[in-house]
Amino acid sequence: MLSASKPLLALTSLTAMAIRLPPHTPTHYAPPHRRTPPFRSITRAALSPSTTAMAVSLPPSPKKVLVPIAMGTEEMEAVILAGVLRRAGADVTLASVEDGLEVEASYGTRIIADKSIAACADQVFDLVALPGGMPGSVRLRDNEILQRIMVRQAEEKRLYRAICAAPAVVLMPWGLHKGRKITCHPSFIGDLPTFRAVESNVQVSGELTTSRGPGTAFQFALSFVEQLFGPHAVEDVESTLIDAGLERSTEVNRVEWPFDHKPQGGPEGAELLHRSTALKKLLKEQKQASMMYGGICYSPLILQKQGLLQDKTVTAHPSIVNQLTCQVIERSKVVIDGNLITGKGLGTVMDFSLAIVRKFFGHGRAKGVANGMVFDYPKS
């Protein structure tokens, strides 16, 4: 979300700060091999005697996944877990342990759950995955309904997961870590039993899988996809993330990005107005004033339509590269050209964000932020 104190206007494909993830995976996100043809009913009158014994096979029920959330949940972990699993075809339920469905996550993002945790009490899930964050992990731990769901999940030997602070703050008090190798965020690793603690990004131990933080959330989520759907599904989902095999960052026409300017107008939420004259004016003012602007995924195409990519070098989502008339570096996650920054897609958003931090505040600050998220960041 833009504010009057941040001199960067960056467009993303995500156009709402109050995030509501749909309860079912949209058809266009489902991997091709998981799509099923439309169901066509057959009336008995149309069947001949030779076909009355014909068996009609229905598509298998989707895997059911529960992702509980609370006030102070780490938003990146919750949204990445739900988003990646829905791309794989899972039926994911975001369930609030609070009195209402809307929760404010650890860094202020508002997330609207699909239902309350009480509505999930008697349901059976193939997987329950706990995001971390503080104080969200504490609020998850203190919810008795969620505790009963998790204990039953473990007793019935169905899959359960926890990331970041949740392995130490939630699983340990509930006794769901016993006899397992587990990992968690470095800030909490000292709370784990020494002989059971490991520092791997993703640790699988029977039905339990644990991970370290926001920087390992994609890897964590993809491990679920493999366990629920198999390695072919992982390949399908990975292809939508646009991450593997790319250079981390490329910078041309280097300039310093000072942080002592005020942006040239524009209300908060201007990123929602992709087609508005107000946004067009704002973007042009940013460029004319030599202020920073940018976009990720499909947004460079918006910048081009507004005449903001002339003589620029960018990267963008592969599906729109052929529509861009400027120079494109396809093998880089992030490209910085003067005051313009562009990113390739969903799987590169961490590098995109940290590149902005580095330009404004320096490499040391970016490295510190990356370490806090347990994200692999270059030393120099």
What does this structure look like?
The protein has 380 residues and is an alpha/beta fold. It has 2 domains: 17-25 and 61-241, Class I glutamine amidotransferase (GATase) domain (Rossmann fold, 3-Layer(aba) Sandwich), CATH 3.40.50.880; 245-372, Class I glutamine amidotransferase (GATase) domain (Rossmann fold). Helix content is 28%, strand content 17%. It has 10 helices and 17 strands. It has helices at residues 75-88, 136-141, 144-155, 166-174, 217-229, 231-241, 277-288, 299-305, 349-361, 363-372, and strands spanning 8-11, 18-19, 64-69, 91-96, 102-104, 110-112, 115-116, 127-130, 159-163, 202-205, 208-211, 250-252, 292-296, 313-314, 327-328, 334-337, 340-343. It has a 7-stranded mixed β-sheet, with helices on both faces. Strands 1-13-17-16-12 form a 5-stranded mixed β-sheet, sandwiched between helices. A 3-stranded mixed β-sheet has the order 2-6-5, with no helix packed on it. A hairpin with a 2-residue loop joins strand 16 (334-337) and strand 17. Helix 1 packs parallel to helix 5 and helix 5 (217-229) packs antiparallel against helix 6 (231-241). It is elongated and about 60 Å long. The two termini are 29 Å apart. It comes from Triticum turgidum subsp. durum (Durum wheat). It holds the Pfam family DJ-1_PfpI. Belongs to the peptidase C56 family. Residues 1-18 form the signal peptide. InterPro entries: Class_I_gatase-like, DJ-1, DJ-1/PfpI, Prot/Nucl_acid_deglycase.
